[in-house]
Amino acid sequence: MPAHPPGPQKTLHEVAQQVGIYPPQAYEFIQEGLAFTVKRIHGTARKPDTTLHITGRQLCEGLRDLALLHWGKLSRVVLARWNIHRTEDFGRMVFALVEAGHLHKTEADSFEDFRRVFDFAKVFEDSYSIELKT
Q: Is 73 inside any structural domain?
């Protein structure tokens, strides 16, 4: 029987303090975005022996969509208040959470998966539109 990886060794607040760039709320957003993206990609049905892994690119896209759902045109402003200005910031937080035992990665996962996934100005300002239901 495979051993379960150890649980988190640090709280989100401790991770935020150690990294020193992003507040605890930003890490909470990463965790919420991870759940949102996993559900979107894998659904809610859990099949035995299947992984719920997602790529860095998929997570970035899920975080983008979740931010737009939560804050719309203000997404870039909210993220900037948390010192998040590019997708690489998502990657730094994800790998800090991996190191602290909150998340797990595969051998194929790399920080490079988070490089230049999208431009914040384009997705949060230039191409954002509000859909009106009639």
A: yes
